[in-house]
Design goal:
The chain contains 2 helices and 7 strands. The chain is α+β, with helices and mostly antiparallel strands. The protein has one domain (about 1-125): Nucleoside Triphosphate Pyrophosphohydrolase, CATH 3.90.79.10. A 4-stranded mixed sheet has the order 4-1-6-5, with helices on both faces. It has a 3-stranded antiparallel sheet with strand order 3-2-7, with no helix packed on it. β5 and β6 form a beta hairpin. The protein is globular and about 35 Å long. Its cofactor is Mg(2+). Pfam families: NUDIX.
Length: about 130
């Protein structure tokens, strides 16, 4: 089973950060929640903290990651956490495009297919 941890990062204005996948990757040009694969033996929250540092240059603590929902397909399990408390300003460190969206705009975006139901859960949580 491949476990992927993703984050609905929420700013003080209540907007949610999405990342557009860069060219050359699967689902290039589609929006997704930041995050990534857990390494063998790595806990999902630990993997997400590592990925947020690598992808966005921000840091947070396990206690700041609240589990919201999950989706699965085949051997992939995608876990979504909500984070409102983090240090740093998100920056696109891996060639991706970043943008903050109002929760009501999330489902209007071209999302990676597994992220669509996650986006609905985030919208419902914040509206």
């Amino acid at each position: 089973m491949l476990i992927v941890s993703a984050c609905a990062l929420i700013d003080r204005a209540g907007q949610v950060l999405l990342s557009k996948r860069p060219e050359g990757r699967a689902h290039a040009g589609l929006w997704e929640f930041p995050g990534g694969k857990a390494e063998p033996g790595e806990e999902p929250r630990t993997a997400l903290i590592r990925e947020l540092g690598e992808e966005l240059g921000i840091s947070t603590e396990e206690s700041c990651l609240a589990p919201l929902t999950f989706e699965g397909e085949g051997e992939l399990l995608l876990l979504l956490y909500v984070c409102r408390k983090y240090k740093g300003i998100p920056a696109p460190l891996e060639g991706q495009t970043l943008r903050w969206f109002d929760p009501g705009e999330l489902l209007d975006q071209d999302l990676v297919p597994l992220d669509r139901p996650l986006a609905a859960a985030v919208r419902d949580l914040l509206s």
